[in-house]
Amino acid sequence: MNQDEGTSLQAILRRPRVEIDVEHYYAGVEIAYDGGVNLAFTGDAPSVPPRMVQHSLRMAQRIYRVAERVYCAVGYALGNVVFIVGDEGIVVLDTTEKKEGAEAAREDFYRACPAARPLPFVAVIYSHNHTDHIGGVRAFASDESVASGACKIIAHETLMEAVTNNAVIAGPILTLRSAYSFGSLLEAGPEGRINNGIGPELRKGQTTFIAPTVTFADRLDITLAGIRFELLHAPSECDDEIIAWLPDLKVLISAEVVQGECLCNLHTLRGTRYRDPQQWVRTLDMMRALPADYMVPSHGRPVAGKDNVAELLRVYRDAIAFIHDQAARFMNRGATPDELADLLPALPPHLAQHAWLGEYYGTVKHSVRQIFTGQLGWFDGDPTTLDPLPPRDRAARWVALIGGRESVLARTQEALADDNSLDQARWAAELVSLLVKLDTTDTEARLLKARALQRLGFATENINWRNWYLTAARELEGRYEGLNASGRDAMSSPDILRTIPAHRLLEMLSIRLAAERSFDKHRCLQFEVSDQAQILTAELRHGVLQIHATAFAVDGEVAPRVVLDQASLGEMLAGGEAAFRQLVADGKATLRAGDLDQVSAFLGFFDPRPRSLAKLATH
To answer: Do 188 and 326 sit in the same domain of this protein?
Structure first.
């Protein structure tokens, strides 16, 4: 597109913002318990932008009381826990990511509301499938309380499909990219992790899960612990998102439709399916029609006052609408994703100044790129990008054109010598990346790129960008060589694997099949899942794997059959041949047909689960 188009808007969007004070939002909310803890960094350091520290101060660990019966635990983990106290029991909405964080929130809730301690937990509501909303459930429910019906687990009908996809298909790479986004590989402190944008930190500990026992599609009107709930489907950040409206208390529990005290991630850098901004806006408009006196989010502090809730929902809605509509406007003039990020660098001043729209978590720049991809796909319209030279070949040609390795190093060092220009740091990182692509063992080039990324990381107010910059810099410095990947995949914890249908679990094999080793093979392996009373077959057929929900064998062959329960199947699929042999040795797996060598040979066609973390900055 013509580069002059949109420059007037661009100039307006680049004006400095001065954040407005919205402390009146919290005047009608009582701090019921404050232990004086803040898990986020709140100090003063040259490596931390002051506004990022101000954002950390909002994350103090507290129990807030709203409308007498509703309590919100903020600052105990990435996500909040919402407690609704009835006469007959307690309802929990969202559970944080780890059992330990949920237990800490529960105990402080009891300090804030001692009368609740004898009451049972009668329901847990999952607002959506992300781990920071479901992972701490066993702080409030057990297999026994759920099986007996004493505690309901309530969610949207599509939640289990999302949980299954995350665990089976994309779990390893999503876990790694999440570690970069949330700074899980960084130390907490001024040169590392400051906060996590929507919460103080992503807690470490035990990820737990119990599958829903009550699900619904569009709406569920239900009375829990004597309190009326209207649970409404609210597609936005996730397709399975739900909100809770408590009509008698005039409380709106907004889940992650409002994604904390910051601009939402219309796209998350860790990776996700397309988040439809138009649907998100429609959901916010649906929420605006509710006569709420209070709003309790799954991230950030509760808000009190009908006018305050209305204003917040309006500006949040308008921010998303602005990003989508202006991106579409310039897409239709031919703008590419990078051009969109240049034309639309920020929100307009009247929105950018709002305290709940700071770009601490989401940014306009990475959101508009995703809107392009979501609407048009990856192709930017320039046919030279259809079949470009491989990255390493391109890098070699650019290095030669610049004058060779020493010339690239000299120009990178020259750019980095300007301590006051972030544009020079951006250019240095891009330039020296040519050498890293050409030779990932080039230590001098790696360290120069790390230096450039660190400078960019220390300057950004967006926590996702900061964590990616700094984590990539550490990777380039060689700090993550051989870092063990085991125990880091919260998306496929043992609790989650136990809830996934066995035939879906077997899809884990499909995405690890080394096709090049099996083009001339046609074999089967049967699985008798004892506690599910089902027999499944994995058929390896010339470079593809098909899962059959029945016994199946290649003509003229006897397929080996492994007998084991669901939990052991998950262990076997995660650990491969070594895990299978250990299960046999422990008596947790037996053979009804075939022998161990046949099973081992079949499993040998599949890549083992990675033992160390993949590389993102040096591949």
So the answer is: yes
